[in-house]
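Quick start: read one record
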Amino acid sequence: MIVKHNKKIIGTFPLSYAGTKSTFKGALKVSEKGVYELTVYAYDPVTGNTGVDKITHVVK
């Protein structure tokens, strides 16, 4: 997943398969207030199946 804080990329973080189709898991600790945008992407090289989703979360 790619993580942005206040529109600036702060890093990429791995996710693992959560045991259910199209579901992944991971942990991210944040310490600063602001707007966080998470972009999750996955690619299966065997089938060519690709997916992406984005969520925005505000920490007050």
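The longest strand covers residues 34-43.
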